[in-house]
Amino acid sequence: xxxxxxxAKLRHLREDRSMSxxxxxxxxxxxxSYLNQIEHNxxxxxxxxxxxxxxxxxxxxxxxxxxxxxxxxxxVREALLDESVGASVSDSEINDLATNLPSVAxxxxxxxxxxxxxxxxxxxxxxxxxxGQHGSAAAPLPHEEVRDFFYERENYVAELDERAERLAVELxxxxxxxxxxxxxxxxxxxxxxxxxxxxxxxxxxxQHRYEPDTRVLRMAPSMRVGQQAFRxxxxxxxxxxxxxxxELADSWAFSGSAARSLARVGLANYFAGALVLPYTEFHSxxxxxxxxxxxxxxxxxxxxxTVCHRLSTLQRPKKRGIPFSFVRVDRAGNMSxxxxxxxxxxxxVGGSCPLWTVYEAFASPGKILTQVAEMPDGKxxxxxxxxxxxxxxxxxxxxxxxxxxxxxxLRHARRLVYSTGLDLDDGTxxxxxxxxxxxxxxxxxxxxxxxxxxxxxxxxxxxSTFVPYPAVPKAD
Length: 476
What we know:
This protein is an alpha+beta fold. It has helices spanning 7-16, 21-28, 32-39, 47-57, 70-81, 91-100, 102-126, 142-152, 158-171, 176-191, 225-240, 242-250, 257-276, 279-288, 293-300, 304-311, 357-360, and strands at 194-196, 208-211, 216-219, 315-316, 319-320, 325-329, 335-340, 369-374, 380-390, 400-409, 431-432. Among the domains are: 7-64, lambda repressor-like DNA-binding domains (434 Repressor (Amino-terminal Domain), Orthogonal Bundle); 158-276, Arc Repressor Mutant, subunit A; 325-432, Beta-Lactamase, CATH 3.30.450.
């Protein structure tokens, strides 16, 4: 069994409750000296002590798990690897910082991100366009800000999730067409909103439109039953929980009204997902089906992407699902959605890894692919990926295709139906991937598109190598 060292977390938790070591030691039925050793990582947490801690503080055992810092470690590494920083630190030093001083590590990451934004803004100000005019400062992209907002919350919004489930129980919501009809009736009876499929111009790509003055919700006829239910649930969120949604949006320092409005839409959509797929029932079905996504799609009458996104939000205390990371990409490598309840790190620099199965899925449309992937730090993940396609027109009209990926740490893989028959203990079967070429430490990767920032290159005019951008060998 892996030993758990959680001294810093325990110390911060104790100090937040204004307890002395002697006070906590009495509660845990151990000596103050023993507790002092635990807080300084001289001794690991034992199972009996861990159980008493969860009872004393009302937290889950997972709160003390060391893997909780994995994402912060990756963020700090990316910040310190920046060539403009030029820091020379070891992985153990980064891990110690993230584990023992998480607030300092988070502040470092935020400062680095603000620094990168300032550099981009300065570059925009001094760059002239073709007419000799100075460009405007590059403002943060609203959708990136909203991604960070949900990322920091580990893709779980308890306030909305719990309210959505209560409403689902109160309304006695069921699945499929009955769910859509129940939500239509709720909108009409409780909010005076009329739902219709008329008045939408799909030729211009319009999918829905709410008209506050007339209280009419218009939805495109081509929208599937599950999509219509989701849209009506989102409208209920904006009508019923506007004050809460505003409060949540105001808790984050968004750069402007566009980002804040996009966050409100995201929060309303989160509520919709939690209403259409109520937490307790969905969690129970996911566990009983061994997270078989297609069975969940059939049971709840929603699409593949919707189920994957909901699976990544199952982080309710004392009723947690597998901590998944969720991502949606296009063929060009653009990441339009990324959320994580696990330690998997999505790079903000240099794109993603071409060896990731999420991109391979485009070669097998509609087929679920699996992959055991190993990050440069040795941590392994189990990924599944499949393409999703949507077209609102007829033959010859352009649609949109994405690859949706869902991943978890390898230790959870046996709980998934997709691991059946796989040898998860075979380390040689893992695909070595990275966070993106510019920050990836795998110097011997033949698929590398950029050199690693902060690494000196070997440039020899008289030789060539199969591996692009070979690094200077370390001196003996």
